[in-house]
Design a protein that fits this description.
By secondary structure, the protein is mainly α. 78% of the residues lie in helices and 0% in strands. Helix 1 packs antiparallel against helix 4 and helix 5 packs antiparallel against helix 7.
Length: 238
C-alpha cells in the first residue's frame, strides 16, 4: 500500500480498493475451481451456483471502478497513488474476466453430462486447473505485499501453463480421432481447457500490473509464451 496521507479519508479510500480487489480475487478463484469440479463430477447444481455468482463479481468490478473514478476526481492523485488506483481498475478487469471464464466452463457441464469426462482427461483438466489457480492465488498474495520481484517471477512462469495446455490439447485431439463419438464432448473440453489457460494469462496480467504499481515501469521483455497448440497435428494410425 501507499504511505499514509494527511487526510485519513484518502487512506481509507485506497484501502477500500485493496480490500475489494482481495474479495474479488477470492470469489473469482473459487468460481474457477468449482467450475472444474462441476465438470469432472457432472454436478449441475454446483455449475449453476458458479453461473449465478458471476453477477456478484460484475457488481464488484463496477463498484471498484466507481470508487476509483470518485477518488481520482476528489484527490487528484499523482505518482504512486495514481498507479495504485489505475492498477486496481486493471486488476479488477482481469478478475472479472477470470469469473467469466469460470462461468463459461460451468455452462458446459450440462452439455457433457451424458457422455461424462474420461478419467485420463479429467486428470489433465484438474492438473491444468491446479497450475492456473495456483498462479492466480500466488499473484493475489503478491498484491497484498506489492513485491515487484515476486510479481516478475510469476510472470515468467506462464509458460508452464501453456505447455500443459498444449499437452492436453493434443490428448483431446487423439480422443476425437480414435472415436467420432468423442468429438462433441472433447470439443467442449477443448474450450474448457483454453479457458483455464486464459485464467493463467489473466494472472500474468495481474502480475504485470503489480510490478507497474510498485516500480512505475512495465516489466522488461516479452512474457514467455509456449502455446504450441497451433502446430499440433494428430495423424491417424495406418
Amino acid at each position: 500500500m501507499t504511505n499514509s496521507h494527511i487526510t485519513s479519508a484518502y487512506d481509507e479510500e485506497l484501502k477500500y480498493l485493496t480490500r475489494r480487489i482481495s474479495e474479488m480475487g477470492g470469489l473469482a478463484e473459487q468460481m474457477a475451481a468449482d467450475a472444474v469440479r462441476a465438470l469432472v463430477t457432472g454436478d449441475a447444481a454446483l455449475a449453476q451456483k458458479v453461473i449465478s455468482e458471476d453477477v456478484v463479481l460484475d457488481n464488484a468490478e463496477r463498484e471498484i471502478i466507481d470508487k476509483a473514478v470518485v477518488t481520482i476526481a476528489k484527490r487528484q492523485p499523482m505518482a504512486a497513488d495514481l498507479r495504485e488506483i489505475m492498477g486496481a481498475i486493471r486488476i479488477a478487469a482481469d478478475l472479472e474476466r477470470v469469473g467469466d471464464l469460470g462461468k463459461n466452463n460451468a455452462k458446459r457441464v450440462i452439455a457433457i453430462q451424458q457422455s461424462g469426462v474420461p478419467r485420463a482427461l479429467a486428470r489433465g483438466l484438474e492438473h491444468l486447473s491446479e497450475l492456473a489457480l495456483m498462479q492466480l492465488k500466488e499473484v493475489l498474495d503478491v498484491y497484498a505485499t506489492r513485491s515487484a520481484q515476486k510479481a516478475e517471477s510469476i510472470r515468467d512462469r506462464d509458460e508452464e501453463i501453456d505447455a500443459m495446455y498444449t499437452s492436453l490439447f493434443r490428448e483431446l485431439l487423439t480422443y476425437m480421432m480414435e472415436d467420432p463419438r468423442n468429438i462433441t464432448p472433447c470439443t467442449h473440453l477443448l474450450f474448457c481447457a483454453k479457458n483455464l489457460e486464459r485464467i493463467g494469462d489473466h494472472a500474468t496480467n495481474i502480475a504485470e500490473s503489480i510490478y507497474y504499481i510498485t516500480t512505475g515501469y512495465q516489466p522488461e521483455g516479452e512474457r514467455p509464451k509456449h502455446d504450441d497448440s497451433v502446430s499440433v497435428a494428430v495423424t491417424p494410425d495406418a
